[in-house]
Amino acid sequence: MSTDFIAGFIGKICDLIDERSACYKNPCLNGGKCLIKNTLSNFTCKCMIGYRGPLCAQEDHCASMPCRNGGTCTPIESGFECACK
């Protein structure tokens, strides 16, 4: 029997999010998944492709890899910049 578990769940079959959990109100935006880290009050968001940031609130303009020929994409406030090789 495995003793591994994900913190923040309660109920007979561990299918309900604990109201004390930082993920209870789903702070992650744009389809991001909230993951509990170490304690119920500490969390991280796993963002969907195309979004970034602590709460997945920022568009990741580099997700589509717009820079060609090996250029490096850097997200900036107004979109992205490519650094050519």
Chart the SSEs and their pairings.
Blueprint: E1 9-10, E2 16-17, E3 33-37, E4 39-46, E5 51-52, E6 58-59, E7 72-76, E8 79-83
Antiparallel strand pairs: 1-2, 3-4, 5-6, 7-8
Describe this structure in words.
This protein has 85 residues and is mainly β. The protein has strands at 9-10, 16-17, 33-37, 39-46, 51-52, 58-59, 72-76, 79-83. Strand 7 and strand 8 form a beta hairpin. Residues 1-5 have low confidence and may be disordered. The protein starts with 8 loop residues before the first strand and ends with a strand. It has no helices and eight strands. It is elongated and about 55 Å long. The strands form four sheets. The chain has a two-stranded antiparallel sheet. The chain has a two-stranded antiparallel ribbon with strand order 3-4. A two-stranded antiparallel ribbon has the order 5-6. The protein has a domain at 9-60: Laminin.
End-to-end distance, in Å?
53 Å
| SSE order | EEEEEEEE
Strands side by side in the biggest sheet: 1-2
- Just give the CATH class of the domain at 9-60: Mainly Beta
Domain EGF-like: 19-57, 58-85
Disulfide bonds: 28-45, 47-56
Pfam families: EGF
Organism: Lymnaea stagnalis (Great pond snail)
